[in-house]
């Protein structure tokens, strides 16, 4: 590998653009290929970001010997298969959350990583948001311990649209995508595995075939608990709100912003080199490649989250 990490990005949708915007601020990294379904749109985005190759064929890109790594921002159902293909082609891979929507597929990705020894990372962005990093640092310093997390993940998506308001070619999922953020973050922040999980869901959408409302309860081995409410029916405010209730403080996090339980703003601008969680996530991916180590949010470290999601799905479908 040269001093510059040469990257291919698959998926020119909303999250692909977030990665491209973040990578612009990272030295020693160049996106040299863009892959997406619509060739005209892919070419337009490639031109906008100065990317030399635009194509609809991932295999064509994986055949190149001058590409070091791939970032996958493709539909959920493709993640595991494509991640394995990247590693089999000798490429490090970062796959956007969720890693999979079938546990066996995620296990296959981990097996491929172990066989190849390559860097394999999943985009669990909450581990990298400065707001959550601040809380994690206080926990690591022994200054704060979580007693309870209360989380609300609310969107208004009664039709199959993405974050840019464009039609999706696939269906998003409250459990396998949006709950994955919180299930992983809860165990990560507690430093303790989830040992108990329960879920209930509302009616399924007649066309999309997914539950539009869901409630999840978690308990960690150290006794901490988490309550997560999710909805695609909520007409504002939108996004995810995390309330950390601990032994010494209460924190409320929304993406990269953090306040106390008394509405006092906490300055998290010095927590890391950027306030952009996606950029920080990508920085970790590239640092792990350079340093020959597995990253924070490696496939191995996040897979326990997907085992919990699998158990919850079994409950919900019983």
Distinctive features:
Dihydrodipicolinate Reductase, domain 2; seven-stranded mixed sheet; 318 residues; Rossmann fold
Task: Walk me through this protein's architecture.
This protein is of the alpha/beta class and 318 residues long. The protein folds into 2 domains: 5-124, NAD(P)-binding Rossmann-like Domain (Rossmann fold); 129-271, 2-Layer Sandwich (Dihydrodipicolinate Reductase, domain 2), CATH 3.30.360. The chain is 35% helix and 25% strand. It has 9 helices and 13 strands. It has helices at residues 14-23, 39-49, 58-62, 79-88, 103-116, 130-140, 174-190, 277-291, 299-317, and strands at residues 5-10, 29-35, 53-55, 69-72, 92-96, 120-123, 146-154, 194-201, 213-220, 225-231, 239-246, 250-254, 257-260. It has a 7-stranded mixed sheet with strand order 8-9-10-7-11-12-13, with helices on one face. A 6-stranded parallel sheet has the order 3-2-1-4-5-6, with helices on both faces.
Brief summary:
With 318 residues, the protein is α/β, with parallel strands linked by helices. It has helices at residues 14-23, 39-49, 58-62, 79-88, 103-116, 130-140, 174-190, 277-291, 299-317, and strands at 5-10, 29-35, 53-55, 69-72, 92-96, 120-123, 146-154, 194-201, 213-220, 225-231, 239-246, 250-254, 257-260. It folds into two domains: 5-124, 3-Layer(aba) Sandwich (Rossmann fold), CATH 3.40.50.720; 129-271, Dihydrodipicolinate Reductase, domain 2 (2-Layer Sandwich).
Helix-strand blueprint:
Layout: E1 5-10, H1 14-23, E2 29-35, H2 39-49, E3 53-55, H3 58-62, E4 69-72, H4 79-88, E5 92-96, H5 103-116, E6 120-123, H6 130-140, E7 146-154, H7 174-190, E8 194-201, E9 213-220, E10 225-231, E11 239-246, E12 250-254, E13 257-260, H8 277-291, H9 299-317
Parallel strand pairs: 1-2, 1-4, 2-3, 4-5, 5-6, 7-10
Antiparallel strand pairs: 7-11, 8-9, 9-10, 11-12, 12-13
């Amino acid at each position: 590998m040269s001093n510059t990490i040469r990257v291919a990005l698959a998926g020119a949708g909303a999250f692909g653009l977030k990665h491209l915007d973040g990578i612009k601020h990272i030295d020693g990294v160049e996106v040299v290929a863009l892959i997406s379904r619509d060739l005209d749109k892919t070419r337009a985005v490639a031109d906008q970001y100065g990317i030399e190759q635009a194509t609809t064929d991932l295999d064509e890109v994986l055949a190149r010997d001058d590409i070091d790594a791939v970032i996958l921002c493709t539909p959920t159902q493709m993640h595991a298969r494509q991640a394995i293909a990247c590693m089999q082609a000798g490429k490090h891979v970062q796959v956007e959350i969720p890693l999979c929507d079938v546990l066996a597929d995620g296990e296959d990705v981990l097996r491929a990583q172990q066989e190849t020894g390559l860097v394999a990372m999943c985009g669990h962005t909450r581990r990298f948001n400065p707001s959550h990093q601040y809380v994690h640092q206080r926990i690591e310093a022994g200054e704060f311990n979580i007693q309870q997390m209360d989380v609300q993940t609310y969107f208004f998506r009664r039709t199959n649209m993405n974050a840019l308001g464009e039609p999706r070619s696939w269906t998003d999922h409250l459990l396998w995508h949006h709950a994955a953020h919180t299930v992983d973050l809860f165990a990560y922040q507690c430093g303790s595995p989830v040992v108990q999980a329960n879920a209930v869901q509302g009616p399924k959408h007649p066309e999309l075939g997914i539950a539009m409302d869901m409630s999840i309860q978690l308990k960690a081995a150290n006794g901490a608990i988490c309550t997560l409410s999710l909805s695609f029916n909520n007409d504002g405010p939108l996004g995810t709100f995390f309330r950390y209730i601990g032994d010494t403080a209460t924190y409320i996090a929304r993406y990269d912003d953090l306040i106390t339980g008394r509405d006092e703003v906490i300055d998290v601008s010095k927590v890391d080199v950027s306030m952009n969680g996606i950029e920080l996530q990508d920085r970790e991916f590239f640092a792990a490649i350079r340093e020959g180590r597995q990253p924070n949010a490696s496939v191995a470290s996040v897979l326990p989250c997907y085992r919990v999601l699998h158990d919850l799905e079994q409950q919900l479908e019983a």
